Structures are given as C-alpha cells and as structure tokens.
Amino acid sequence: MAEKENSTQGEDNIMFSPYKMGNFNLSHRIVLAPMTRCRALEGIPQPSMGEYYSQRATQGGFLISEGTSISPTAAGYPHVPGIYKEEHVEAWRNIVDAVHDKGSIFFCQLWHVGRASHSVYQPEGAAPISSTSKPLSASSKVLLPDGSIGDYHSEPRKLSTSEIPEIVEHYRQSAINAIQAGVEIYFRPISLIKDMYLVYYVSWLFLGC
Ligand SMILES: Cc1cc2nc3c(=O)[nH]c(=O)nc-3n(C[C@H](O)[C@H](O)[C@H](O)COP(=O)(O)O)c2cc1C
C-alpha cells in the first residue's frame, strides 16, 4: 500500500514538474489538446472563446488552439474559426492576450480539412478540394450546420498540380497572421499530407516558422 502511494505521488511530481520544450520553459506538463468547439460565428472567434481558453491557462502552461481554417475552402465543421482575414486576426489577438495574461503559451493549429468537408462549408456550394476525386469511406460522417450528421461530399474536386502552391501560400500567410495575432506557432499538416502529399512544402513551412 505504502509502495502504491509512493508511486502515485511520483507520477504527480512528473506531471507538475517543469519541462523545456524547444525555446519554451513550461512549468508543468498538462497541455490543452486542440479541440474543435464550433463557437466561432462566420469564422470569427468570439469573446466566449477568450473565456474558454483563459479559463484553461496557467502560469507556465501550454495550450493548443482548435483547428483553425487557413482559407475559405478549409473548413469541414460548423462555426470553426479562421485566421485568413484581418477580422480573424483582430479577434484572435484578444484571445491570445487573455491567455498570455495568465502566463501560458498558445499555439494556433492551422488547418485545412481537404476532402473531409461538405459542399455546405465550401464557397458557393462547390465540391471540397483534395488530391483525389475519391470520396471518404461511406462510414465516415460529417457534422452539418444544423447539428445533424450527414455523408461527406460524394466527389471531391481533385486539385491540379498547378493549384497546390496556392494552398501552400495560404498556410504561409496564415502562419504570418497567427504570429501577428501574438501566438507562438504550430500547424496541422496531417489532413493535407494525407490528402495532398505536401510533405516537402509543409516541412519547409515548419522550419521556416
Ligand atoms: C470534441 C473534440 C474535438 C477535437 N478537435 C480536434 C482538433 O480541432 N484538432 C486536432 O488535432 N484534434 C482534435 N481532437 C483530438 C484531440 O486533440 C485528442 O487528440 C484526442 O481527443 C485524443 O486524446 P484523448 O485520448 O485524451 O481523448 C478533438 C477531440 C475532441 C474530443
């Protein structure tokens, strides 16, 4: 029994012990994972999001934002925030300031969902873009704006090679926007890597940041 108590105490000590993560000095190891919360209206982060993130911020803590759209074609859920317009940047700045005031660092998860979207989230109801015109498997479902669950788009639009630099540019500009909003930087290439094989470009972006 005494041994078990000691080992539990040991685990607690690790969770609450400092950690050096690259240039960042964290005072504990409890991190907020990125979680889509669907609380941005028309892509604009709302004050309730500032409250949500600052409630979870602590001195020396580390938060990762929910997936944040890099362009009008990037979303695949309702009410996800963007980081590609000036009004997005302004709204994020208030949230980031609130998190920094509590002493945490804040990464922004830059996001494009690829074909994991629906025409309802696309400009002018177009097909979602991808590296392929193959749809996601029928067992994958999409959350629609009215809260119901539907099927993903039956045929994503396969991008031509010449269109890919534009997506890379959206990531680059969004990274700049996020830095202007005050965040430390992070992004989620996974959806696009799976869909578009942008490994080379994404690696370059990561190092470039
Ligand atoms: C409601 C919800 C929203 C999520 N949104 C995101 C997201 O925006 N980006 C992401 O990379 N992961 C997202 N995730 C995945 C989580 O960050 C986490 O990796 C996942 O829940 C596994 O951790 P767990 O085993 O502790 O739950 C989400 C998870 C949940 C439950």
Automatic annotation (TrEMBL):
One of its GO terms (biological process) is jasmonic acid biosynthetic process. Residues 15-184 form the NADH:flavin oxidoreductase/NADH oxidase N-terminal domain. One of its GO terms (cellular component) is peroxisome. Its cofactor is FMN. The keyword Transcription regulation does not apply. Keywords: Flavoprotein, FMN, NADP. One of its GO terms (molecular function) is FMN binding. Belongs to the NADH:flavin oxidoreductase/NADH oxidase family. This is Putative 12-oxophytodienoate reductase. It comes from Lupinus albus (White lupine). The lineage of its organism: Eukaryota, Viridiplantae, Streptophyta, Embryophyta, Tracheophyta.
